[in-house]
Amino acid sequence: MTDQAVSVPRRESSVLRFARGLALIRESWVGSVGLAIIVFWALVAIFADVLAPFPPNATGAPMTLPGGPSLDGSMIHYLGTDQLGRDILSRIIFGSRQVLFYAPLATFCAYLVGIPMGLAAGYRRGLTDDVLSFFANVILSFPVLVLYILIIATIGASGSNIVIAVTFASAPGIMRIVRGLVLDLRNREYVFAAETRGETPWRIMLVEILPNARGPLIVDACLRLGYVVITIGTLGFLGLGLPPPDPDWGGMVSETRQFAMFMPHMAIYPCIAISSLVLGFNLLADGLREVSMRD
Amino acid sequence: MGSHGHGSAGSDYDGPILECKDLCISYFTRAGEIPAVIDFNMVLHQGHSIGLVGESGCGKSTVAMAIMRYLGNNGAIVGGQVLYKGRDMATFSEEELRQLRGNELAMVYQEPMASLNPSMTLGRQLVEVPLCHEDISHDEAYKRAVQILADVNLPEPERIMAAYPHQISGGQQQRVVIAMALLSNPSLLLLDEPTTALDVTVEAGIIELIGQIAEKYNTSMVYISHNLGLILATCDRVNVMYSGVVVERGAVGEVFDRMRHPYTKGLFGCIPLPGADKTASPLVPIRGQLPLPHQRPPGCYFGPRCDFFAEGVCDREGLKMSPVPDEPGHSVRCRRWQEIDWSAYKPEGVGAGATTAGDVVLSLKNMKKYYEIADNSIAAMISGKRVRYVKANESISLEARSSETVAIVGESGCGKSTFAKVLMGLETATDGEVVFNGKDIAQQEVQKRSPAQVGSMQMVFQNPFDTLNPSHSVGAQLARVIRKFGVESNKDKIEQRVLELLDLVKLPRDFARRRPRQLSGGQKQRVGIARAFAGNPSTVVADEPVSALDVSVQAAVTGLLMDIQKSYRTTLIFISHDLSLVRYLADRVVVMYLGRIVEQGTTDEVFAPPYHPYTEALLSAVPIADTSVQKKRIILEGNLPSVTNPPSGCVFHTRCPRYIGDVCKTELPPVVTLGSGHEIACHLSMAEMEDMKPVISMVTAPQSPAAE
Fold first, then answer.
1. Cβ within 8 Å, pair A189-B481
2. Does residue A56 contact residue A94 with C-beta atoms inside 8 Å?
3. pLDDT tens for each residue of A218-241
4. How large is the ipTM?
5. Which residue of B428, B469, B509, B527 to mutate against A (max A Cβ within 10 Å)?
6. How far apart, in Å, do the first and last CA atoms of chain A sit?
7. B498: part of which helix (H) or strand (E)?
8. C-alpha span between B623 and B398 (Å, rounded)
9. Are A173 and A114 within 8 A, CB to CB?
10. CA B184, B187, B190, B195: dihedral to nearest 10 degrees?
11. pTM score, two decimals?
């Protein structure tokens, strides 16, 4: 006989469990690559001050080719300079801060709005569902770009307004995903069990249903992060992004596009930065899906 | 055998149709090679049928898949051979296999809806089979399909040919699937749990059909089932499988009457047989659980669960089948079977002991539950009938006393689940009274009930894989219930109570820390029971609590439920379709059909004549794993009518084998009270009722294994 544990069963810490879940990604080759790319960019953003050879807004000789020397000849512009003589590598490094701050924040806010809407629509159904789904369909029927331009043009270009615009445009999509998951999960017997002991609807939605929807939602969040990176780039390109002079990947492409015919490096490197980060998120999403399908 | 020269189509071949020799099948997973079936031998002759019986995960479906060569990407035959008409199936080319399948080998799966293409008419799917395998015209193929549909007793075959799968009932779908399998007149038919997804009266019809096919077409069959009663009804020989190996095989009569292996014995001890009642011969569960394929013990795989385990004998490797003398073809995979003295074996049963019913706890008077369905069609708008009613429960009146078990019996769609929802307060009754502990709760939703009230009526659910929230630990889920019902509020006391509840359902205390996915089906169901008893309920509603569990686990969980009920003097409302189980554990039985109670009374009254014709048909449909039992055969015709449009008069008249005339169609049957509270709602006269004979009778002196 094993001696029975009289001690109180401890919950293992949620941090530990999260770390263990993250470690599972090692089993997917694709996911590991994605995670590596994201970690790389995160480190770049954190240590931008150390890594960047120049201050982001310092000017030197304009339109230096990659590998060209700085004005005083003591340093090298590895990726060249832009039309105002600012070091492109340094601007990409500092630009990663903007993207890696606003993209997760905007995605998080979109989920913060989308999840409760989806829970309410899927769990309560009926009129709640009809009304919420109607509004979601109206928003989703707009061309996304037009929607962004309208919003940003109305409330002005700034970091927080990008977050608002992304939230407004993404929340309906998230709502529909959550709603679909809830429609399935609400018929599980543990949900009936919670209902038969008289739990409140919000407790059932948040404690009984939502944690079981987390798998598909985490995968979706990863994919969505990638889209938001693209969106922020696009907004920057359209001149609706973060106001100058702070570096912004999309803005960098936009500002240099008239020289792209003879000085392509000024636009190409920021584009590579954007696509690599998006690729990282997409690969991680694929990896997560792969790992979660196995069990 | 030296018969390799035989072609698959050799009509002069008279050896066995199918032979498995030392067949070993493995699956290859990330964790490595997992042997699913080991050392499997079988010889099937023309026109014979062999049953494979065992619990989930014992490898019986894998054998069928290996015969069909459908093992998928990660499965492979790693040893032995499968001979089809004397030829090793490994020597067949892909093209030959394709010709073989569907033509000479046909398979019928468990879920008929998954076997039929929902976007094609049944006719097109049926005609495809002969068109694909034979060189015949479309007209000829069509004629043959219509003929075969008539052969499987489907009414109006022409209409069925034009229908889509969803337009016919589940039982009819399975008949179509069987018809499809028979179309090319196969030599071998594999049936993998063909009736598990069907209601018991529908099942009886399919089983009868399978018997007719065997006679008419002289087809050889492999019948896979977990139900011993069905094997008895359909097969000549049986292989009992446990954890990938055959533990006993022989003629059905020999294995059922004189079983030798402790596992076979254990299986029979787990199923309630008609002669058994709970006080005289209680169910005996098999302790422990099926080992995982990569954790099989050395020697005999059943060793750790066996009461006759002997160290140094049973855990020695190299265990082979040993033949039983005087019974040719009967062999056992056990080293000690000759030493075991079954007459001295008196295992301790569960759920034994009678109780006396106390006061009335729950009483329903004329409870009605109608669902409104808004009809948004244009026709409905014009006629003005925008709302239709689904009469899910009609005039339900019954009483339940403390410490009493009331079973609610009926097929799917009879309103059992709606009844449970009204009791639990998830729905409010449309009319009538539901008096619980002296208070009418018919109109009280669960949110309006007090915590004590909610706690005193709880529910055990059906599906063990769904009953616990996979995101929270077992302890957290039990603790929540305790807090919610206000049993305890102090944190330490709650934890103490969680551990006590785990003790109550005989689970180790460290299960509190585990997550549901780390538990087996039976263990989850035990936690479900613990959760229901957390608030010290006076009434527990159990909705098919064991129907999704394996036979050996079923007995243990049933016994546990009964033991707890007895010690707490709880009223148990036991919803089930399993009449054998109901007879075993219920004090009173309520039979429902299409939302109405057709018969109720004590268990003895309901299971003995006079019956309601529906009860009679239900009883006759139950497969019984006892060779000494004789049953009257009553097969219900037609389909269960829709609840939205129930038949007039007596709702059962469309299928009733004792239909007496227009009075059944036009008038609601009167409720006849016989004796003390035995009620039957039927137009039959007293004389006709008294003339009824018992459905189940013993032909010989009871020598049922459970009674030994």
1. no
2. yes
3. 899 999 999 999 988 888 888 887
4. 0.80
5. B469
6. 32
7. helix B491-504
8. 29
9. yes
10. 70
11. 0.82
